[in-house]
Amino acid sequence: MHAAIDAVVFLYIGVPAVLLLGRAYIGLWREALPEWILQLPAAAVPGLLLLLLHYSKGLILFIEPADSLFLRQERRWMRGLIIRAVIMGSLTAYVRLTLIILLLAPILVRGFSMEWGELLQMLAGLCAFQTAANLLDHLIRVNHARWKRWIWLSLSGTTVTAAFLAWYYLTDWQQGLAWLIPMGCLGLSAVLISLRLRLQGRLESELREELRGRTRLTALLLSQSVPPPKPERSRPWLFRGSRRLLRSSLPGDRAAELTVKSFFRGQELQTYAGFTLLGCLAVIIPPFPVNLIVYLGLVLLLSHGVNESRKFFFRSSLMGMLCGAREAEAASSARTMKLLLFPALMLMTCFFFFSITHAWWGILPGMAAGYAVSLAAGSMAPVLFSTGFRRMSKPRS
């Protein structure tokens, strides 16, 4: 049944998509190139090639943890696995790079006036750099851990990038000298392979890297269907201590303080920060009549979202067990909304006034206006977006 459904989906979606992409690819060869391709800078080619080079790393040895005892005793098998992994990884990278270069060939030939011989030299150089980068990356991951690993990986990435840019810009493509550095990379790859084969006592590191690679592949396959697990943090980023935010000890103020700390300590902080950043960009890009409407809409959206988070906190099972939770929610609603809205509205209002005045002194009235807007929105939001105070506990008979 699933195979039939997949075949039908491929028949109705995949085949037309392949035909459309093929028609677009042929059009890049025969028709006039789009204007945006002709306006691409010359640095776009090495930048794209560097992305292909850095995001195609990785060696998979296909080692199982149950085979560790056998591999410790039979060193020849481990050497064979390493050699096969290097060959398989290199061939896979070569095929991937060849397909990408073929897809980009009309842009490189017609847009950047490159010859087919230059494309062949570029592909050979990419393959040579890819092999050396894969081996160097694997050798570093096996030998080092934690912060030393990231330092060495950064140094190797910088070295590979500098060597690739020097090869791309300093090579005379017309005289065929572009083959020198790729041959040097192949020689370096042979040295790295010999160094890896001489290393002993790295089987546990190999197993850890194998599990990391498989975990990344599994996460990539399941990213669209299963949400990633939330990382566990021992301590929150904000409000790590137990210091008080408000001087008053009234139940409403204490409930407001507890709600604010819970909001900024939880997962809502990322959404809040992202909304604030996008809101600042949304009010500074459009002209004055439009950004005012956008600003008012953002204030309403933020007030509604924060108010829903506040009500969700008081409807939790823990708050439902406390006595006087309903009265505390009613007494703390306005104060809680003011505290939660203040940081975001302050930043968005400052950006709004800066976009109007086009000067840095516009931030000063923006701060005063942001404070006033946060007070007004915090007072009106519980009334505008209120659906009644409810508790999760059962009513008493």
Automatic annotation (TrEMBL):
Q: Does the keyword Cytoplasm apply?
A: no
> Record's Gene Ontology CC terms?
membrane
Where are the membrane-spanning stretches? 7-26, 38-60, 81-107, 119-138, 150-170, 176-195, 340-363, 369-389
> What's the superkingdom here?
Bacteria
InterPro entries of this UniProt entry?
EcsB_ABC
Record's keyword terms, sorted: Membrane, Transmembrane, Transmembrane helix
Write one Pfam family the protein is assigned to: EcsB
State the protein's name. Uncharacterized protein
